Amino acid sequence: MLTIQKLHKAYQSQTVLDQISLELPQGQILAILGRSGCGKTTLLKAVAGLLSPDAGAVSWSGTSMDTVPPREREMVYLFQEPLLFPHLTVFENLAYGLRVRKETEQEIQQKVGEMLEELELQEHAQKKPNQLSGGQRQRVAFGRAIIFTPRVLLLDEPFASLDAQTRATMQALFLRLVKKFNISALFVTHDVKEALLVGDSFAYMAAGKLQVYTSSEAFMGDPKTGVSDELTFWNKIEQKIKYQS
Ligand SMILES: Nc1ncnc2c1ncn2[C@@H]1O[C@H](COP(=O)(O)OP(=O)(O)OP(=O)(O)O)[C@@H](O)[C@H]1O
User: Fold this and answer.
1) What is the number of the ligand 1 atom nearest to the C-alpha of 190?
2) How far is the CA of 126 from the centre of ligand 1 (A)?
3) Which of 11, 22, 34, 2 is nearest to 156 (CA)?
4) Which residues, at least 6 apart from 98, have a Cβ–Cβ distance to it below 8 Å?
5) I need a surface site. Which of 5, 14, 80, 121 has the fewest CB within 10 A?
6) Cα–Cα distance, 152 to 145 (Å, whole number)
7) CA pseudo-torsion sign 33, 34, 37, 38
8) Is the pLDDT of residue 50 over 80?
């Protein structure tokens, strides 16, 4: 269980995280929706240990993470633009974290082989990142993040730059692998439909405050999240299409 207690961060006079608290059970996905600049990235970075909050605490199953450096937290921050080692092949990008952890060659071959299969990238194993499409690069970055089964995945608009079809494939892959490996995830998105699709629970962030909803009905029913407006829009489009056909 990931526990965040009263996390607070300000830049000069601007409060970016305002006493944020939440609990996320293992294997659950919290989808976080919020407008640009409301503090979502700051929240993920504070959880990952990539920036220090002014106050508050992050813990995993009762163990404080506050003095644990980012590399040892097992909480992986996945950027919107995939960060891969340009000089390494797809295979070696996936193997990197396992080599750092000094896993045996046999384990590395087995785990990377299985991951290549999961990601449907077997025939691209020996390519360098600049020989891949954007969606393929994103898959490698995703595989590299989960190959050593982190406690928490922190995803910051991970699929925003992908076309609609590739995005749908990545959402399905994300859900399948996160559930298979029982990984908890904070999933930041601007896309209402994506939030509803991936989330087990939901949150809306505004001006540094986070409101958590435990059901999709509560999330959809609160006018300030904008979810009901968007669903009304899509219903109207559907009716228009029916009317025209
Ligand atoms: N290093 C910094 N110094 C000063 N202000 C900062 C710094 N980093 C972020 N901010 C401010 O904190 C606020 C929240 O930024 P953050 O990146 O967390 O927003 P966000 O919700 O992720 O936005 P977006 O959806 O556009 O990525 C913004 O107003 C931003 O300008």
Assistant:
1) 25
2) 38
3) 34
4) 107, 108, 111, 112, 147, 148
5) 14
6) 10
7) negative
8) yes
- Residue to substitute in 13, 32, 36, 40 for testing ligand 1 pocket (most ligand atoms within 8 angstroms of CB): 40
The amino acid sitting at 170 is: M
d(CA 164, CA 161): 9
Q: Could you read off the pLDDT of 173-187 as tens digits, one per residue?
A: 999 999 999 999 999
Q: CA angle, corner 103, sides to 98 and 107, nearest 5?
A: 95
Q: How far is the CA of 32 from the centre of ligand 1 (A)?
A: 15
Beta strand pairing call for 152-156 and 14-24 = unpaired
ipTM for the assembly: 0.95
User: Domain 2-244 - what CATH class?
Assistant: alpha beta
pLDDT of residue 3: 97
> Using one digit for the tens of pLDDT, what is the confidence trace for 108-133?
999 999 999 999 999 999 999 999 99
| Ligand 1 mean position, distance from CA 42 (Å) | 6
SS (H, E, C) 96-114: HHHHHCCCCHHHHHHHHHH
Count of all residues that appear for the chain in the document: 245
Confidence of residue 75 (pLDDT cuts 50, 70, 90): very high
* Token pair of 14 as six digits: 């601007």
- Does residue 150 sit in helix, strand or coil? coil
Q: How far is CA 169 from CA 124, 139, 184, 228, in A?
A: 18, 10, 20, 25
